[in-house]
Design a protein that fits this description.
InterPro entries: Glyco_trans_2-like, Nucleotide-diphossugar_trans
Strand content: 15-25%
Number of helices: 12
Strand order of the largest sheet: 1-4-3-2-5-12
Low-confidence stretches: 3-8, 347-352
Helix content: 25-40%
Mean pLDDT: 90
Organism: Candidatus Propionivibrio aalborgensis
Number of strands: 17
Family: Belongs to the glycosyltransferase 2 family.
CATH topology of the largest domain: Spore Coat Polysaccharide Biosynthesis Protein SpsA, Chain A
Pfam family, one: Glycos_transf_2
CATH class of the largest domain: Alpha Beta
CATH architecture of the largest domain: Alpha-Beta Complex
Protein name: Glycosyltransferase 2-like domain-containing protein
């Protein structure tokens, strides 16, 4: 990895952008940061994850005030952000997808709320679809299996998680929580960080003002509704199911984890079997759901060690942990509303770091 950075004096906020093949979207992202209102001193860091579309060269030549870290190998979203935070100088971090663009007052809005709270907290902003302008969520609640349930109530405040596409956190809190688990690769790292923060007694809040535009579906070729049907890829779905299971194993409060994990795994088997049967393709079960079980076995020691550490520092009563949960399984809600998901075997060219 190489690192070239300009000399910046004492920024208050470090904006960290993980880039992989983001030529089509990176200008919109960087310009939105450079156009922020107010006088808050910021630095911009970009980690290029072995892009092959020329975006790293474009960033270096077009944005000389951006600190560019380049990787010779594709290391994933978690490693990319951990590397940027390792050299960040700001008191606060704003993790921003390269396919997201901030509203002009976004950073000042987040900083003002951080000061008002007067305690470390993870914050997020309303997320709008870059194409349609439609509100996607203002943070998310969680269902019993840790699937995000979009919140659209601007008055709610406390949520289960905010998306890593635009996630604000004090650097000291990031360091206390040990950042992203690098063995996640990509997907679900924001869920883990938010669950761990809440267990340790730190708020996770989504603000009902300002916001950001997001080209949802660019990353991993899916994750959004197209023509009334949920569209995704095998790879994205496999990473999502695996990493949500990791988060459940590490963060679900005792004694709820003991019955919930077997139920969760049984439902994954049933889901994979039904999808394979209905689509006439065993690949659904083989490529998405069965790997969850092997991953749990291979990572069992790491998962249990992480759980012991997390539970040792947990201060939030179980009743408060579940206060941001929606009891209805979100997959059932989506099935009723949109039918069976459409999953593509091939990985569409993505902008979020793959891993």
């Amino acid at each position: 990895m190489t690192h070239s950075a300009p000399d910046i004096n004492e920024p208050m906020v470090s904006v960290c952008i993980a880039n992989f093949n983001g030529m089509a979207v990176i200008d919109d992202c960087l310009r939105s940061v450079l156009a922020q209102e107010g006088q808050t001193p910021i630095e911009i860091l970009v980690h290029d994850d072995a892009s092959n579309d020329g975006s790293a060269t474009h960033i270096r030549s077009t944005y000389p005030n951006v600190a560019l870290l380049t990787s010779q190998a594709n290391v994933g979203f978690c490693v990319a952000n951990n590397r940027m935070v390792g050299v960040a100088k700001g008191q606060y971090l704003l993790l921003l997808n390269n396919d997201a663009a901030l509203y002009p007052n976004a950073i000042d809005t987040l900083l003002t709320e951080s000061v008002r709270l007067d305690q470390p907290a993870i914050l997020g902003l309303p997320q709008y679809d870059a194409g349609s302008g439609e509100l996607i969520d203002i943070g998310s609640l969680l269902d019993p299996f840790l699937n995000p349930v979009p919140n659209r109530d601007p008055e709610r405040g406390a949520v289960g998680m905010v998306m890593g596409a635009c996630l604000w956190i004090p650097k000291a809190l990031w360091q206390e929580l040990d950042g992203f688990p690098e063995w996640f690769g990509s997907i679900g790292e924001d869920l883990f960080l938010c669950c761990r923060a809440r267990l340790a007694g730190y708020p996770v809040r989504a603000l009902g003002v300002s916001g950001y535009r997001h080209h949802v579906g660019q990353s991993f070729g899916g994750g959004k509704v197209n023509n009334g049907r949920l569209s995704s890829t095998f790879r994205r779905r496999a990473l999502s199911e695996r990493n949500k299971t990791f988060v459940l194993t590490m963060t679900y409060p005792t004694p709820y984890m003991q019955p919930m994990l077997p139920i969760h795994l049984l439902l994954l088997l049933l889901e994979g079997g039904l999808l394979s049967l209905l689509h006439g393709r065993i690949a659904y079960l083989k490529e998405i759901y069965l790997p969850v079980f092997s991953a749990l076995f291979l990572r069992r020691k790491k998962l249990l060690a992480a759980r012991r550490l997390i539970m040792k520092s947990a201060h939030l009563p179980s009743s408060e942990f579940f206060a941001v949960f929606d009891p209805l399984p979100h997959k059932l809600r989506m099935l009723i509303r949109h039918g069976l998901p459409i999953l593509k075997s091939e990985l569409a060219p993505g902008n979020r770091t793959e891993g």
